[in-house]
Design a protein that fits this description.
two-stranded antiparallel sheet; 519 residues; 4% strand; 3-stranded antiparallel β-sheet; mainly alpha; elongated; 18 helices
Length: 519
């Protein structure tokens, strides 16, 4: 293949420079960001892959300015219906290179935030805009012998709708952990061979929470594994995932930032990391309590709804009991007549109460649960690092020190053993350097993941807002239903009903009757 400089002999449009300057960092654009830009061209996935392979023939995992210009040029000729080849650009040797149609400047600006690795400029609202995902349970169970449920996974970003089962999510989760060991990856909900409908619904909500956190992660959402899982519409998803990502190189191996990870972390990174970890642990303890309280609120609301249904049924039995004649009292006959109609009315109130508790209160509950999943994932990330790269670094360094001590004891001996030991020490020093780079890269990732949690702190007031809105909606709807019961019973009630108007807002109560208001 011809070199980049020999291909791009035409005039470089100003738009090329603008896009590169917007999305690059340290004069390069990482692979995942190149694909994020390419996807805005609306070309086929196979075409996007051909474009990137042509721009990065050595598979470096990033593009310099010339390589990125070539990527833009190939995108433009592909949009014009021409093949992705050097020959397609020969027509522009004496002219300005073609300009591709990409997303708007504001969208490119959003993508550019992935360019500078030391900055995290996403707000919670902008994270939410990365994608909107939903997961719905398909009716019935599949499988001839071992029955299983399936879900419909939809992605607004990709315009996709695919079918997935729990084991597909398991395989996806396993590969994602291998590819990104130093990132926030929420845990999977549990598995059961014999599951109730209640368990299945709870797991569906947990899987939806998991996939939304993954799909709205600034690093994950453009990753080829995530895109494949969101869009692949064939059968045997697990095998396809394992085949396509058979040897998933982790982020440290793939990332061009790994070589300069030491420069990306702050001098006091260890102190700052431990401080953040302590604060997030304290925050997690409070969120766990709030989550438990909300769970109890929902349980009590559902129990209260069931009590209302039983209350209405008992009134109905009272009205239907012919043995309770009460001496043929005329008023009691009227009361019995009204009571016989109450089970239907109370069942309606009960059903609506339960639905409002399940739907409206559940929204606040799930928002809080999503944030709790992030905090739990952070602690799991810290544990993975301690059991992995940190332990490896300590072991490699200790081994090298042992070798050097042994070398000192052999200093007076001129032997082949000493030469071999020197060679082993050099190899061990190289291993220590490699593990040290990985250690700094893990610290850099943890810094960025901590900032991701900070950006998601907005979930806390959002959960409170949704709780308040839920109670407003619940009380408004139930007030109208209760007022209907009052109107129905007022016909036989011996005293006038106290409910004569809408409920007053807090702090807006009028002065008590018989007392003039003071000014």
């Amino acid at each position: 293949m011809a070199g980049i400089s020999s291909v791009l002999q035409g005039s470089i449009p100003a738009q090329y420079r603008d896009v590169f300057d917007l999305v690059s960092y340290d004069n390069s654009v990482p692979r995942h960001l190149c694909f994020a830009v390419l996807r805005t061209s609306k070309l086929l996935k196979s075409t996007l892959e051909a474009i990137y392979e042509s721009a990065d023939p050595r598979s470096q995992g990033y593009l310099t300015r010339d390589g990125f210009y070539k990527l833009l040029a190939y995108t433009a000729v592909a949009q014009a219906g021409k093949p992705v080849s050097d020959k397609s650009l020969e027509a522009y040797r004496e002219a300005e290179l073609p300009i591709p149609t990409l997303c708007s400047a504001s969208e490119l600006k959003k993508l550019s935030r992935q360019g500078n690795p030391t900055e995290f400029n996403f707000t919670y609202a902008e994270l939410m805009e990365l994608d909107t995902l939903d997961l719905e349970l398909l009716p019935g169970k599949k499988g001839l012998v071992f029955k299983h449920v399936e879900y419909t996974l939809t992605s607004k970003l990709h315009g996709s709708k695919v079918t997935r089962r729990y084991s597909d999510f398991e395989t996806f989760h396993e590969i994602l952990l291998q590819r990104y060991p130093y990132r926030l990856i929420p845990k999977m909900p549990p598995k059961k061979f014999v599951a109730s409908s209640q368990f299945i619904e709870g797991r569906r909500r947990a899987l939806r929470q998991f996939i939304n956190l993954v799909g709205r992660h600034p690093v994950f959402y453009a990753d080829e594994l995530v895109v494949f899982f969101m869009t692949f519409n064939g059968s045997d998803v697990q095998s396809k995932l394992k085949d396509k990502f058979r040897t998933p190189l982790d982020e440290f191996v793939r990332s061009p930032l790994a070589a300069k990870a030491r420069e990306l972390v702050t001098a006091d990174v260890h102190v700052g990391m431990e401080k953040s970890r302590g604060q997030l642990k304290e925050l997690q303890a409070s969120v766990v309590k709030l989550y438990g309280i909300l769970d109890r609120l929902i349980s009590r609301a559902l129990a209260a709804a069931e009590d209302l249904r039983q209350y209405g049924e008992e009134l109905g039995r009272l009205g239907s009991n012919a043995a309770l004649s009460m001496g043929g009292d005329a008023e009691w006959s009227k009361i019995r007549l009204q009571f016989r109609e109450l089970p239907t009315v109370f069942t309606s109130v009960s059903n609506r109460s339960a639905q409002l508790a399940s739907d409206n209160l559940q929204s606040s509950f799930e928002t809080l649960g999503e944030f709790l999943s992030l905090l739990t994932a952070f602690e799991q990330l810290m544990e993975r690092r301690e059991k992995g790269v940190l332990r490896e670094h300590q072991a490699a360094y200790a081994k090298m020190q042992t070798m050097k001590k042994h070398q000192g004891r052999m200093a007076t001996q001129k032997s082949v053993d000493e030469q071999d030991l020197q060679q082993q020490i050099l190899q061990q020093e190289s291993e220590v350097t490699s593990v040290e780079r990985r250690n700094f890269f893990s610290l850099y990732c943890i810094q960025m993941e901590t900032k991701l949690i900070y950006a998601n702190l907005s979930m806390l007031p959002l959960a409170v807002e949704r709780l308040a809105a839920a109670y407003c909606t619940n009380h408004q709807e139930l007030f109208a239903m209760w007022r209907g019961i009052v109107s129905q019973l007022s016909i036989i009630s011996p005293v006038p009903s106290p409910m004569t108007s809408e409920p007053k807002l807090l702090g807006a109560s009028p002065a008590s009757p018989g007392h003039a208001s003071k000014t």
